[in-house]
Amino acid sequence: MYDVAVVGAGPAGASAAIAAAQAGGRVLLLDKHDFPRDKACGDGIAPQALFELGKLGLSNVDDGYPALPDLSITGPSGARAQRPMPTPVRVIPRTVFDARLVDAAVAAGATLQKHRVRSISEENDRVIIDGIEARTLIGADGATSVVRRHLREAPNGPGHLAIAIRGYAQHPLENGLVQRIVMSGGAWPAYAWSFPIGDGRRNVGYGELLRGSPVSRDHLLARLTDLMPDVDLAETAGLRAHYLPLSTRRPAAGRGRILLAGDALSLINPFTGEGIFYAVVSGALAGQTAALLPGPGAAQWYGLALRTRLGRHLRHTKAATRMANIPGVVDAGIRAGARDQRVFNAFVELGLGDGLLTSRLLRKTATALVLRSGGEPASRG
After folding, report:
1. Tens of pLDDT along 22-34?
2. Which residues have CB under 8 Å from 120's CB, separation 6+?
3. Over the stretch 263-311, which tens digit does the pLDDT of each residue have?
């Protein structure tokens, strides 16, 4: 019998396997794919995520990928700010990044097995996954999690689920290594992005909140080229869409011996779509809990640890999302960030890590909203 079984070997699952193995557990890591494998994503790896991986002893997962020091943001009504990031981001294709984490999990002692999970059952002292027995199960199997379905937790519905499409376009190095985000005034919240990788390519994409109406591939691609007119779809490879379950509607962190982490727990920032930082944090906490506190109380202990670590931040991101629905607030915040590096930094920390709505951010945004300087209109049109 394994001490810990982890379903899904993305960043959440690999982090869980690493943490559980480091805590002395006998760990099985299951995934339906061979690695390396592609995963539709913006590929931005925030420094906050790298810091959390550093706590697990991983210090070289970003080797070969340059730091991107600057970020340019254009708001729904045209406000713009371009400033240095507090700490640079890396853009690492998930074919590389996820494989490096999986290799680290195996190096830590986890057993990797290609397997598509079809059935889960529970007994008094174990969980059984297609005949495989474990004391504790961690579901880190993404937006369509089979482990979450076993717990009878409904998937996120309209208003709490986004969809995005991404691809790889050419990006000559002479164009610079500036990340660009252009927000939409017509289907808010929504934005397009262009993130240079540093190898002559850039990750480009567009995402928006789902509100109950069908969204077609053609619509997503049209919005991408509207907001990023320098993207030539004929020369863009690997265009794939994916769902993002937002943290505004999260299921219980688990039940008994079964825990959820990462996208399976709907840990996606509702304002930015960032999920890798949350995946690493929640995966590591789940792995540590499963190895050190196995038994029917594992989910309770894990839920407490997760609330202690991220609870306040998640409340602030939910509040920020509500505030962003007020016309002009996002543009006002961007104008404030253009004038004040500390405001810009607070925006970045809130969107990419575990930052909060600081008093300075709120005060400066409110001032910019009242003044409406720069000539931008108050509404999105």
Report:
1. 999 999 999 999 9
2. 127, 128, 129, 137, 146, 147, 150, 258
3. 999 999 998 999 999 999 999 999 999 999 999 999 999 999 999 999 9
Q: What angle is formed at CA 190 by the lines to CA 186 and CA 194, rounded to 5 degrees?
A: 115
Neighbouring-strand partners of residue 138: 6, 259
Range of lowest pLDDT (165-179, 231-245, 339-353) = 165-179
Q: What is the DSSP string of 287-347?
A: HHHHHHS-STTHHHHHHHHHHHHHHHHHHHHHHHHHHHTSTTHHHHHHHHHHH-HHHHHHH
3-class secondary-structure state, position 162: strand
Q: Do residues 204 and 243 make contact, with C-beta atoms less than 8 angstroms apart? A: no
Q: How far apart are CA 372 and CA 381, in angstroms?
A: 16
- The pLDDT tens digits of the residues spanning 152-210 come to 999 999 999 999 999 999 997 777 899 999 999 878 889 999 999 999 999 999 999 99
Query: What are residue 226's phi and psi, to 5 degrees?
Result: -65, -45
Over the stretch 110-121, which tens digit does the pLDDT of each residue have? 999 999 999 999
**CA proximity to 293, closest of 250, 253, 256, 252:** 256
| pLDDT at residue number 165 | 98
Backbone angles phi, psi at 186, to 5 degrees: -105, -20
Q: Is 168 helix (H, G, I), strand (E, B) or coil?
A: strand
Q: Are 38 and 166 in contact (CB under 8 A)?
A: no
Please state the pTM of the whole predicted model: 0.95
pLDDT of residue 269: 97
Cβ–Cβ contacts within 10 Å for residue 271, how many? 21
Contacts of 1 (CB under 8 A, 6+ apart): 126, 133, 134, 135
327 Cβ contact list (under 8 Å, min separation 6): 378, 379, 380
Chain position carrying tokens 């494998």: 37
- Calculate Rg over the CA atoms of the chain: 21
> 190: helix, coil or strand?
strand
Question: Quick one: CA dihedral 163, 167, 169, 173, positive or negative?
Answer: positive
